[in-house]
Amino acid sequence: MRRRRSDTAGCFEVARALQAYLDGVTDDATTQRIERHLEQCRRCGLEARTYLEIKAAMTRRIPVVDELALERLRAFASRIVEAPPTTGGARP
Ligand SMILES: [Zn+2]
């Protein structure tokens, strides 16, 4: 399973593990591999930054995010009410 050739993660691996890495739940080896890759790969570095910004926005501006989320939920709900799914048969 382990590739001995490189101790740097590939883009695919980083993309898969990025969220876990940013949540701090990856093991030390994975963390190091990802960090090394992020230093070298601009694309993944940017991706990581985007995730971090989203996370920061979620923790720092809870009211704003909540409001937006609520609005989206409301719009979604009203859309469902206006146009119920056509699968049908579930209603009594
Ligand atoms: Zn990359």
- The overall number of domains is 1
Total of DSSP H or I helical runs spanning 4+ residues: 4
- Structural classification: mainly alpha
- Compounds present? zinc ion
Fraction of residues in H or I helices: over 70%
The shape is elongated
Structural Rg: 20 Å
> Approximately what portion of the residues adopt beta-strand conformation?
under 5%
- Give the total of beta strands: 0
Task: Please give the largest β-sheet.
Answer: none
* Low-pLDDT segments, ≥5 res: none
Overall average residue pLDDT: 80
Write a concise keyword list for the protein shown above.
binds zinc ion; mainly alpha; single chain; 92 residues
What does this entry look like structurally?
The chain is mainly alpha-helical. The chain has one domain (11-82). 71% of the residues lie in helices and 0% in strands. It is elongated, with a radius of gyration of 20 Å. It starts with 10 loop residues before the first helix and ends in a 10-residue tail after the last helix. It binds zinc ion. Residues 11, 14, 37, 41, 43-44 line the site of zinc ion (ZN).
